[in-house]
Amino acid sequence: MMERGDAPRRTKNQTRCGVLIRQLMAGSALAWCAMELCPSPASAQRTVAPATAQTVSVNIPAGELNHALLTLSQTAHLQIFYDMAKVKGLHANAVSGTMTTDQALSRILAGTGYSFSRMGNKISLVPASANITLGPVRVGGTVTHQDPTGPGVGYVAENTMTATKTDTPLMEIPNSIYVITKQQMVDQQPQNISEALRYAPGVKADSAGGVGSGAAFNQGGGITQRGFNTTQFVDGLMSSSQAAGETAFVDRVEVMNGPASVMYGQVTPGGMIGMSLKKPTDTPLHQVSLGFGSWGRYEATFDTSDKITKSGNVRYRIAGIGVTQGTQTDHVDYHRVGVLPSITWDIDAKTSLTFLGSYMYTPGTGTSYAVQYPIQGTLVTDGFKRIPRSNFIGFTNWNEDSVKDAMFEYQFKHEFNKYINFSQTFRWEKSDVNLKEALNDGSVSSTDFANQYYYTDAHHTVTENKSMDARFTGKLATGPLHHTWVVGSDFRSFDNNFQSQTEPEDTIINVYHPGESSYTPCYNINSNSGCQNTLTKEQYNYFQEGIYFQDQIKWRGLSVIAGGRQDWVNTTTNAISYDNTSNIKIADGPDHTKQPQSAFTWRAGLVYQFNFGLAPYFSYSTSFVPQSQTDYRGQPFAPLTGNQYEAGLKYKVPNKEIFVTAAAFHILENHYSIKDMEHTGYSTDAGTVKSQGFEVSVNANVTKNLRLIASYSFTDARFAKNNRTAKRINPVTGATYGDAISEQGMSVPYIPRNMASIFANYTIPSSIVKGISINGGIRYTGSSYAGYVESFKSPDYLLFDIGANYDFGAATSVLKGLKAQLAVSNLTNKYYMPSCDNYDCYVGQGRRLYGNLTYNW
């Protein structure tokens, strides 16, 4: 029995181990922690669980790396081998919370230039590879904690910030969220965000057809989710930035299907697209590429990231692109140069600040209204020749679509303590757009349908967007319940100055033989010019502010989420139109419209995770989107309000990177807006729309050689409560027929019921051939209706994509880091129409080839 004040007796084994450790640390370059070899009496008889599966509670402050490693080794009973001389002076990050030992060690080492490898419970520090650019380090068959805004691993991402604005595993979120990882984009080589979304469940990304073969995604990009138009968010803020649509500047793309208004405000019930811009990496990154492709595409990109200070607490990254190409349509070109620099400053262990900026000059966006062809010659070929995709139906000397886009953003984060964190993101954007185009006025020659009548338009638009999101987050426990809470506020100020001139030229262009059509403009901004045109000036100002709260509650395998938000929106529109011949104001609508709107939205959901990997869930959520439009009478539309019920299953195969999601949904949206067929240029309130269906998806890194994604979506979108009627249209003649019938119960146009896709990448084993991977995909899109009373359909289509890449470094170490890649979309060059309205069709993108050489060092 030990008396008070006596020192505890040490065993002979402990004494020998203590001497051994001191000798090794004093006389050897290799320092190691041997807590398992030198057990205490309390732990000598127990078996230590494998560290890869061990979860520990750690609280290691920032400081000297050697001290942090020793503390972790003692806490988790690890053997960590490393060279003391090489880590001397390096700074370790603070780590606090409950996590796996791999996660703790990964966070400690972030930014030090070191990673680790594992054999059982023995760990060795190794220099971080400069070529690890596609996700967290893989060690011992497991993956360290993934960055929720980072590139993911292979085709699988485990965490996200999109749905909750907190670092949350996908398995704990009672909503459908799909991540397009960086590796998937590398394998498929999409040239814009629309193409990156081709394999996403519930998303139709090609409604505008092949006109966007070079252009970036923007708010008018023809992308829908679950039957509703979508909105893009970049780093958590709504954006119309051209940089956001440039895949060379994006680390990952996320699809959240279903309402997201609680966290983001003005989002339709269909969902949102979230993107993460490239930011400085913890490990050095150096990459350049040269590309080539169809329609004369030539491209050069670079992407480099490294530390500025010796300790690595200040790091930079800069990405850039230069590209030029034609498109499948004559006289429609795509040209762009852009740069995205960023700097991250870890002010201390708990505070960081990141600055990003971009400038993009796109003198040719690769888009044009002149490739929206008439139904006769596209959809209808009985008695009509097919119109070639290369035909430019417009004026070759009046054809401009250029954009200048600048952006500045900062992200600030501070951890007050283990209970409260603060983060803030602010972005300023400005875009300057010039457009000259010819538009079909709907008239056709009485003697030959191929002779179409056109009028001209020119407009200049300057938009400025300022947005900010600030929030406090934290964790706390109330008895057995663990809470992750968020309280925040955001605002968005959007100013648009628009000036347009249209001239009723009524020039005839033959859709089969447009030729080198010429047009002499009679445009003059000054009045009394004698020009027969209309001048329109419009100023649109939008300001939105919202406050929101959310609580994520965990109890054993059960996760519950609940949150709410209040939004206030004010829009002001000043629009004036003049007859430029007489300088007389035209009474075509209100000159001054103010529309204050507000709404409260909320959501609640739960998910339960079983030990074998299955997680059923259910959620209810609402949405709110203010509308600034007016009908032909000048009456403003009521806000769009919606709600969704969603139930589903998520399954993560234990110890595998295979993630399966199945979801069923039921959505209602009130005041759904559609094109007014009786008043050109206006919309009308279509009442309530109901969208219901289900989605199934798989994201899998099946083996180290095989990656796979697959999905099926069924969407039945129909007009529900609706008092509108319309006549059906004959697609051959364009004339209406029969009596007017009710739109209620009719399908919403342009939305296919069925979509399915599969894509896989396979690396051929090195025992057969070294360094070669092949991939391929199949995309099926079902038929969709044109018009609002199911007059006729756009047919379904099936497309094939293939690709291959070769790693020269597998053949010789001299060429290490050099890779070649080839990607072909629409392999069979199928002529298809992704969408048609009552009179016109968009034609899909034909066969496109793209290849590049990439060098990493």
From TrEMBL:
This is TonB-dependent siderophore receptor. The keyword Lyase does not apply. SUPFAM superfamilies: Porins. PROSITE patterns: TONB_DEPENDENT_REC_3. The keyword Transport applies. Gene3D superfamilies: 3.55.50.30, TonB-dependent receptor, beta-barrel domain (2.40.170.20), TonB-dependent receptor, plug domain (2.170.130.10). Pfam families: Plug (PF07715), STN (PF07660), TonB_dep_Rec_b-barrel (PF00593). Keywords: Cell outer membrane, Ion transport, Iron, Iron transport, Membrane, Receptor, Signal, TonB box, Transmembrane, Transmembrane beta strand, Transport. It comes from the Bacteria. It is a multi-pass membrane protein. Residues 78-128 form the Secretin/TonB short N-terminal domain. Belongs to the TonB-dependent receptor family. It is found in: Cell outer membrane. CDD domains: ligand_gated_channel.
